[in-house]
Amino acid sequence: MVAYQTVLVGTDGSESSFAAVASAARLAAACGAELVIACAYSPMRGPELAAAQDQLGAEAYQVVGSAPAEDTLRAAADKAHAEGVVDVRTVAVQDEPVPALVRTAKECSADLIVVGNRGLRSLAGRILGSVPADIARKAGLDVLIVHTT
Description:
It is built from six helices and five strands; from the N terminus they run βαβααβαβααβ. It has helices spanning 15-31, 46-56, 67-82, 97-107, 123-128, 131-138; strands spanning 6-10, 34-41, 88-94, 112-116, 142-146. It is of the alpha/beta class.
């Protein structure tokens, strides 16, 4: 059996997604694979950004551009290192989660995507689609859906 070389996992900063990061990290460590952690984001704009800047003042940089995603990625990388992964790369991607993960998987030559199961069993997930189900359909490579909820 060929071990995975590059494992990609997505995170949005939720406890569920951090559980997926931990699972992906354990698998990557066992395979000696690189772990790529991706976080999709949509930057604040217009009135939403103005309101946040008014509230945060000098700390407004925390909600501009990819700053929130970068914070999430730092926390996820710390969790991955705690699980024993040596080779960790983080990527903030401006896009919706599914296209961001599919594109990042191609760009980093991932041979496995790990996602949590959040939304998979919900009514909204069944009607509108969920990240795990959409990734499994669109990725074109192995997908591991881990139980995180």
